[in-house]
Design goal:
The structure holds 2 protein chains of 2 kinds. Chain A is 36% helix and 18% strand. By secondary structure, chain A is an alpha+beta fold. Chain A starts with a helix and ends with a strand. By secondary structure, chain B is an alpha+beta fold. Chain B has an 8-stranded mixed beta sheet with strand order 5-4-3-7-6-2-13-14. In chain B, strands 1-12-11-10-9 form a 5-stranded antiparallel beta sheet. Classes of the chains: A alpha+beta, B alpha+beta. At the A-B interface, strand 4, strand 5, helix 5, strand 8 and helix 9 of A face strand 4, strand 5, helix 5, strand 8 and helix 7 of B. Strand 5 of chain A pairs antiparallel with strand 8 of chain B, so a sheet runs across the interface.
């Protein structure tokens, strides 16, 4: 009777709040997708897709990853290309999982190894295959944080480090600092023995075309505005003066990032994020990925968060720390907290997504775009990946 | 004798605990500023004290003037911070500390509590007033944060005042970095003699870390809050190191619904604890007062990890307070009627 009651209640509550209160966890099957939303590619802000899992005895989510929410539009995504993305996501989950299984493995190992696979793949906007700046260069950002010690490391605008996430970790472990940028970051990582490459290593044909197309579209847009505004146009010709909201770029030009959140055997959470940033960003622009509190945050007392999306909106909202605070101080579930913050960002005009993991092994994905490259792996080694599926 | 020692010890302890208490909550404040943790009290000279007080008073006056003229809270904090940047006594703009390589790399950020828009610059070397560049990033670019040469090119295109890097050079800061270099050379020599295996000392050892920063929080007649922070960073910092000052949520945060905050201290910890956003979150979600929130973060969380620092907070009702776990904090505030307070240590 009791069990039936709680099952009904759980179902009702789940549909209402799209989350699972701790007391009814036993009513939910392991890894069952709690919420399945209508298949609507344009989600109104109040009805965002959230996937979340409970953590029944034994089976926990130990690692979650994302490859950004700037997915290739469904109509342009061939089955083959989708499968290629899925394969890399699975390889990333397996690499992170294997790292976590090693004796003496710590949370940061899982995060770093999972992200390295995504950085090395040309399919995702991080490491190899990063987007270009307006000047046709690759400037990479990454960050990592340990939820136990609350130590963190980050690099921004690096140009020669093969795996920026490894540089972020070395900043955490060896520098005495948290954030290192530009040439100073490159020099520090190189001196610390981190693998470096010629900047041409990061270039891919796909991203170069995206860069050229982006510049062309920007020019056309400006000319259009010029014609519309007539005399005032001297201003509009300056890319810096274009209104950010009016100046909508294609989603896939704006929101590519990779990230991971993991728990180790001791139950410590960690988060990592890595990105090539915004397509055709201006030299020196830094988004949310290397900023602790915005694109990355981890606290054993709440959760680990990695985000992706329109970085400027995440910076202003201090999005990752906001989710952590909603969980820690307002007592929201991770699913409700991440959904609330993604709605706020959507309302403000930004696209984005987050992955969230608690030390109990409860995970949540939330995004406000058409899809999100993502996946999770449980303590028994079973990997699940998604792109458009809700 | 032992008893006497104990008594003295306890007195010192009590005094030390008091020194972290921060300032009482003052209502009707329209502008609050800080000029960093500053010198240890034992190193403070009467001449320096006069100069510091003059700089703080001038900053408060400049900011208040903007508000009296009908300017926004952003105008007020920009004006106040510019005065402190221009003053060679404080570690921001002219008079900034030197990096390990003997350069001045400046950071600044600003946030508008009404729109929650923000702007920041980091590691800039030729922009005379980094706070103005941060504001330009907020108002004239699509971005929030620009660093290094990219930020400098942007500021130049925006017509901001550009200076030769020598402009930021001051003798007292140059002497300070020289002393550190000498110390490091001596350490190095000693290590060679002792043949000690000291592989952990990759990061430069900081003899006397200087966590100077300047910042301001303000509220205007429309009830809009704003916060800003500007710094030369940490003495002897590594090339490319960025602290909390240009990080929204760490060194600076403002939102009309809650409060405006500017921090100073050991920046690495302020980033990791997302200090200014943590204060706001506690007020909003934990339902504590601004005073309780700032004391918790500065005197419990940060003190717990031996991180030195301070924060100034102006809430939406115009109530101003500070908290610090350091001996000093150069600070001041001014009320709507123009009543001014300037303090350096416990007063």
């Amino acid at each position: 009777m009791n069990r039936a009651c709680s099952l009904v209640l759980a179902t009702v509550l789940a549909s209402l709040f799209q989350t699972v209160p701790a007391w009814c966890e036993d009513a939910i099957k392991p890894n069952r997708l709690v919420v399945a939303l209508a298949d609507n590619p344009v989600q109104p802000a109040g009805d965002l897709p959230v996937q979340s899992w409970s953590s029944p005895s034994g089976v926990k989510v130990v690692l979650m990853i994302h490859g950004g929410c700037g997915v290739i539009p469904r109509d342009k995504m061939s089955d083959k290309l989708a499968d290629e993305h899925r394969e890399v996501l699975k390889a990333s989950l397996r690499a992170g999982y294997a790292a976590l299984q090693k004796p003496n493995a710590v949370n940061l190992d899982g995060v770093v190894e999972a992200i390295k696979v995504l950085e090395d793949s040309p399919l995702f906007n991080a490491g190899k295959g990063s987007v270009f700046t307006r000047e046709g260069k690759n400037e990479l950002d990454a960050s990592i944080m340990d939820g136990k010690s609350k130590q963190a490391g980050a690099v921004a605008s690096t140009t020669i480090i093969k795996n920026p996430i490894t540089a972020a970790r070395i900043v955490l472990e060896k520098s005495g600092h948290v954030l290192m940028v530009g040439e100073g970051a490159d020099q520090f990582a190189k001196a610390a023995g981190i693998e470096f490459v010629d900047p041409s290593y990061f270039k891919t044909e796909y991203r170069w075309k995206q860069h050229e197309r982006g510049l062309k579209e920007e020019q056309e847009l400006q000319e259009k505005e010029k014609a519309a505004k007539g005399k005032e146009l001297g201003k509009a010709a300056n890319p810096d003066s274009v209104d950010p909201v009016a100046f909508r770029r294609r989603t896939e030009d704006r929101v590519g990032t990779v990230g991971a959140v993991a728990i180790d055997r001791a139950g410590n959470v960690a988060a990592g994020t890595s990105t090539g940033g915004l397509n055709n960003k201006r030299h020196g622009r830094v988004g949310d990925a290397p900023i602790i509190g915005a694109g990355n945050f981890a606290d054993n007392d709440s959760c680990a968060i990695s985000s992706t999306g329109d970085g400027e909106f995440f910076l202003r909202a201090v999005a990752a720390h906001e989710i952590s605070s909603l969980v820690k101080y307002k007592g929201l579930s991770i699913a409700s907290a991440s959904k609330q913050v993604m709605s706020q960002i959507k309302d403000a005009g930004g696209d984005g997504a987050v992955i969230v993991l608690t030390r109990k092994g409860e995970g949540a994905f939330s995004y406000n775009t058409e899809g999100m490259y993502r996946g999770y792996i449980t303590s028994d080694g079973e990997a699940h990946v998604f792109i458009f599926e809700k | 004798m032992v008893r006497l020692c104990l008594l003295i010890g306890m007195t010192i302890l009590t005094v030390n605990q008091c020194s972290g208490a921060g300032d009482e909550v003052t209502p009707h404040v329209v502008l609050g500023i800080h000029g960093g943790i500053g010198e240890d009290k034992k190193d403070m000279t009467p001449e320096l004290e006069v100069k510091v007080r003059a700089a703080l008073n001038a900053a408060l006056k400049a900011g208040k003037l903007k508000l009296d003229e009908g300017g926004s809270s952003l105008d007020a904090i920009e004006a106040a911070i510019r005065v402190m940047e221009d003053d060679p006594i404080l570690n921001a703009g002219r008079g900034a500390v030197f990096t390990h390589e003997g350069r001045n790399e400046l950071d600044a950020s600003i946030m508008d509590g009404k729109t929650k828009k923000a702007g920041s610059v980091a590691s800039v070397t030729i922009i005379k007033n980094p706070i103005t560049a941060a504001r330009a990033v907020m108002e004239k670019s699509k971005h929030v944060m620009l660093i290094g040469r990219g930020a400098e090119v942007f500021a130049t295109k925006q017509g901001l005042e550009i200076v030769d890097p020598n402009y930021f050079w001051t003798k007292h800061q140059w002497d300070a970095i020289n002393e550190i270099w000498k110390q490091e050379a001596a350490d190095e020599a000693k290590k060679k003699v002792n043949c000690e295996d000291d592989s952990t000392s990759e990061a430069p050892t900081l003899r006397k870390p200087h966590f100077g920063t300047v910042g301001a929080v303000a509220i205007d007649k429309n009830g809009n809050l704003a916060a800003g922070t500007s710094t030369g960073g940490m003495t002897n910092k590594m090339f490319g190191r960025v602290g909390d000052s240009p990080i929204i949520g760490a060194g600076t945060y403002a939102e009309n619904e809650t409060a405006a905050i500017s921090c100073t201290g050991h920046g690495e910890f302020f980033i990791r604890f997302a200090v200014s956003h943590e204060i706001v979150s506690q007020i909003k979600y934990k339902k504590v007062t601004a005073k309780e929130a700032v004391e918790d973060v500065i005197n419990r969380q940060l003190k717990g990890v031996n991180a030195e620092g301070a924060a100034i907070v102006l809430d939406k009702h115009g109530q101003f307070t500070t908290a610090r776990n350091s001996e000093g904090l150069y600070r001041g505030w001014i009320t709507s009627e123009g009543k001014t307070q300037v303090r350096l240590y416990d007063e």
